[in-house]
Amino acid sequence: MRIIVSRPPGKRRGQILAAAERAFDEYGYARTTMDMVAESAGVAKGSIYNYFKNKADLFGQVLSEALSELEASSLAIAGSSMGASEKIGALIEDIFRFIDQAESIGRVIIEAWALSSRQSSDDAAIAPQRKLYARWRELIAGILAQGVADGEFPEHLEPRIGSAVFLAMCDGMIIQVILNVGLEVSPELMSGMKRGFIAALRNIPPEQAGKSAS
Prior knowledge:
214 residues; mainly alpha; Arc Repressor Mutant, subunit A; Tetracycline Repressor, domain 2; 2 domains; 9 helices
């Protein structure tokens, strides 16, 4: 079932964002036009430019506002009293719960990945996602550093490398879920990912951990 990320009702900007999300999901970035968005939102095309500079800005804001919900919950997990392993497990559950419930945003994320390979890093369409990934890398690295300090993970683990691997693992699974290749978000999938990643962190050899054992 497709679920559009909820936004405050009765707000014209919210109407436009919801309509744009549907259009980008159905037609992709290149084929979506501001006329399509205006018609779907039930507003005049000129009204869109009262809130967004152009299509790239609109796309970036759709992505930014949707992912801000996920970022807020990730920050709450990172700031909780849980141990590092529990936080990593909670983040995995949170990410996949979000993708499962907001399927259209998952496809918009893939569209943003495709755009990032062709456009400059400061392009309005992809800048929000680049900035979010940078913040996520820092957040996850902080959790892994906590795990090293608390003795949950080995001293030779380099948190920044572990953070990059975590995001790469999640991205790979997200692609499979969104492309509907027979992989469904389930408690078994999330449990397996949590156990596998945490076990890998705890048993990673020094030569693969990013720095030499002391």
